[in-house]
Amino acid sequence: MAKEKLVVIKEADLTNNCPECFNQEIKLTFYQRHTYGRLYDRTTKDITHEIKCKKCDSIIYPVSWTEDIERVFDYYQKMLAPDRPVIRFTSLFYILTLLLVVVVVAAGVYIFLEGIIEF
Hints:
Helix content: 25-40%
Structural class: alpha+beta
Keywords: Membrane, Transmembrane, Transmembrane helix
Number of domains: 1
Radius of gyration: 25 Å
C-alpha cells in the first residue's frame, strides 16, 4: 500500500489578526502531496494549505477569513513554486523489470533451441 505524505513547500508568518483570539501570530503553510510505494515515488500536483494561530492553536478555516487574510493568502499562493508532478521509480522496480526481461529472453532462447517454433 502506498503511503501518502504532505511535504511543506512554503511557510509564512502573517501579521494579520486571528479571528478567534485577535492575536497577530498566524502561520500560513502550503503542503504538496507525495505518495511513496514499493515500486515508485510520486509527486502529485495536489496542493493544500493551512492557516493556524500560534497562540490559541486553532486552525483558521476559509469561512472565518477576513479580507486581509484572503488578500495575503492570494499573494502567497501566487508566489508559490511547487515541485512539478513526477513519478520516480525505485530500485525494486528496475530489478523486477530486469528480471522479467531475462526470463522472457531465456524462454525465447529455450523455445528456439528446442525447435518448438521455427523462424
